[in-house]
Amino acid sequence: MSLHVRTAVAAGLLAVCGLALATPRPLVAAKSRIDFSVKEMGVTVSGQFRKFEATIDLDPARPEASKAEVIVDIASLTTGDADTDAIAVDKPWLDKLGFPKATFRSTAVKSPAPNRYEVSGVLTIRGKARPIVVPLTTAAQADGGLLATGGFSVRRSDFGIGGGEWNEGDLVADDVPVTFSLTLGPAAR
Amino acid sequence: MATAPRTQYTAPAQLGHWLVVLLIVAAYAVAWTMVDLKLSPTKLRLFNYHKWIGVTVFALAALRLAWRLGHRPPPLPAGMAAWERQVAEIAHRLLYLLMFAVPLSGWLMSSAKGFQTVYLGVLPIPDALGKNAALGQALTEVHEALTWLLLALVALHAAAALKHHFVDRDDVLRRMLPQWRRRS
Ligand code: HEM
């Protein structure tokens, strides 16, 4: 019995240590943002996602071993206008009830230049997965942290975001530019 | 002949006046329709049309004001009492003020709510204010209050014009109408 407990504790400790060693830099949520903008009749309406998780493990020495995963809480969308927010997460658009999370998972990472990465991966929105390449630039921060910035464009039609009447007559642009600025804390070592 | 004393508003003044009347009527019609709709493509369209109309009214108001500063309107009928002249003068000044203030408040409200005004969908008009929901709400109330004030003033103004025409039977309304009306 006590032997079992001890093995369990030892195994647990090992697991924790192992995790700690592999832990990528933690996301500093307060200094990170994901923004997007939608254009309707020439008017750019910008918004952001307030809640998301990001696990980004960039290895400058071995870029191909780098990994990135971002999980966005759809319900955290805000444009500053309540009516717009309600529509944006409603069924024809991002459908927060049907698909509460949008995700990005890297499949391959290249580093064409120092502090630059090309992260290939799969973007999943509204349950539809599409391959995408996300360019990313890193900048070391004074506190040992790392700022990762970049952007890409989401084609609404690829994911069926905002269908039906919303697609009539070019009212709302198909391309939705997304930019991100993620602050990663100092590496846990 | 250009210096002969005028009994008529000039053609540009008349054109400016009646264009603004048409556009303001359209702006109210669109506004009252759109506010009751739930957010839809139609609502977005109407919002943009309403904003474009407002920008046009503002531009025309500027032209009208420029005209007004360069011209003296035809003298009022001799029979008008001093207080009537004063009320007409004040009402006209307020109408000018509101032709600027109503679109201006709409533009500020829109800016604060995070919706830029892009004239005719192509000409972006810079936002004067950053996104701020509370300020947007406050400006909505300002814009609404000003439109009610404008409406009341227009009602008074139109009633006065009609009174001049049908009761006093003077030429106040006719001088704001094209010449052909005058001869008939
Ligand atoms: C959108 C609504 C309207 C606005 C903003 C407006 C504005 C104005 C302004 C600012 C003036 C003074 C022009 C000047 O002397 O510089 C004016 C004059 C005049 N308006 Fe209007 N107006 C409106 C509607 C109407 C309507 C509906 C009528 C007729 C029923 C009308 C009849 C007149 C007449 C007759 C004058 C000439 C007054 C005079 O000779 O001193 N207006 N209007």
Features:
A: 189 residues, alpha+beta, Lipocalin, ten-stranded antiparallel β-sheet, 3 helices, 10 strands, B: 184 residues, mainly alpha, Fumarate Reductase Cytochrome B subunit, 5 helices, 2 strands, binds protoporphyrin IX containing FE
Protein model, in words:
The complex is a heterodimer of chains A (189) and B (184). Helices cover 17% and strands 46% of the residues of chain A. Chain A is an alpha+beta fold and 189 residues long. Chain A has one domain: Lipid/polyisoprenoid-binding, YceI-like (Lipocalin). In chain A, strands 3-4-6-7-8-9-10-1-2-5 form a 10-stranded antiparallel β-sheet. In chain A, β6 and β7 form a beta hairpin. Chain A is elongated and about 50 Å long. About 5% of the residues of chain A have low confidence. Chain B is 69% helix and 3% strand. Chain B has a two-stranded antiparallel sheet with strand order 1-2. Chain B has a single domain, classed as Up-down Bundle (Fumarate Reductase Cytochrome B subunit), CATH 1.20.950. Chain B contains 5 helices and 2 strands; from the N terminus they run αααββαα. With 184 residues, chain B is mostly helical. Chains A and B meet through β2 and α2 of A and α2 of B. Protoporphyrin IX containing FE (HEM) binds next to α1, α3 and α4 of chain B.
